[in-house]
Amino acid sequence: MFDLASVPSRSESVVTRKTGHEYVLVPVVDNIADMNSVYTLNETGAFLWELIDGKRTVKDLIDSLIIEYDVDRDKASREVISFLDDMDKFLIIR
Amino acid sequence: MRSYNLKIAGYNIRVDSAADGPELRPEERFLRNICESSDYDIQISVHSGAFIIPEESERVFIAPYIVEIKGMKTSTRDNFWSIYKYKSELLLITNFPFSSPAKKAVLKFSLNTREWDLWIAESGAATDPLEYPLDGFILYYLTAINGDIMIHASGVNIARHGFLFSGISGKGKTTIAGLWDESGAKIIHDDRIILRNTGSGYSMFNTPVYRDDKPLESPLTRIFIIEHGISNKMKLVRGASAVSLVMANCIQHNWDAGLIARLLGSVSIMCSSIPVYQLFFRPDRSVVDHILENG
User: Fold this and answer.
1) With contacts defined as CB-CB under 8 Å, which chain A residues touch B239?
2) Which residues form the domain of A18?
3) Tens of pLDDT, residues B67-103
4) What is the domain count for chain A?
5) Contact between A32 and B63 using a beta-carbon 8 Å cutoff
6) What is the ipTM of this complex?
7) DSSP state of B53
8) Chain B residues within 8 A of A47 when measuring between CB atoms
9) Which residue intervals of chain B are DSSP H helices?
10) What is the pLDDT of residues B164-203, one digit of tens each?
11) Which residue of A14, A45, B7, B250 is surrounded by the most CB atoms within 10 Å?
12) Strand bridging mode B3-8 / B34-35
């Protein structure tokens, strides 16, 4: 679970490639069961992904999203937390 | 025989029995791929006996046997194959599900060399050095070295079109290949395809799986990611979505970031020039007409 003070960081075991304004993410795995896991980040996800550096807090991400996309704080908070929870579930961030 | 060359998907694979090696007897499915050549893209020296994996080796990837019970895929306790890293070399250890349980092999190779070694234990007097699953491994790592793509797909060629229908097991690759076959198209394959950029465009190649396979090639003009549906519907996908859909159907050993990056790059470049569609289809002739009218 992430809160406003959490400092997310990217997993080192994921390979990324930017395509236009989006990203494709492929985790490094050690068994065949997880072999074909591929994830896509849309433009907003890509924006957040590029901000995640192991230094910025969740609050920093929300503030940046508000400025970049001109959304209210409630919506920005929901989007950021939902994004981080998804990424955490797939072990793409820590 | 003691040595021969195979031409598969444009790759030239030379197989030699080493001084301590067994007699080589390729399965019938490879006979149409045997060619005369003094050159090779890779050379595989085949030895008899067991290769002892050095203790310092690190296991980087493992594949258990997967069995399907009442439609549910389940892993068994036994290892099917594994990959170990030892210094700059890779060691692939495998069993052979269609041979005696005592028969095992170790392929020692590297992504930077063209000379590989294969040890086969309990091979008998004569053996096929590309017995399943070794054929798939060797072809997969050849595609990885060359920046090519190996994918679960069926391919068809009709009237200057080269259509690739990709999906994992159960999505309808064989069904859709059969429908195109009935419509007079040339079927490149209905299981696994190798995609290569030939310089003038992308081509799809079959690989020997069935006993009557012969080497086939077709230009690639459209990629369809298939799903069964209640009606025929196709939707053009672009960018990261297209790359993700194709990547998810590629054969890939994702234990190494470099291998992933190379494949991701190849797929991204291909998807920037070959249109990718999601196709929901009914398993009858109507899907062929739908694609010819709308593709």
Assistant:
1) 19-20, 22
2) 14-89
3) 555 555 555 556 789 999 999 999 999 999 888 888 9
4) 1
5) yes
6) 0.88
7) P
8) none
9) 134-146, 173-182, 239-247, 257-271, 286-294
10) 999 988 889 999 999 999 999 999 988 899 999 999 999 9
11) B250
12) antiparallel
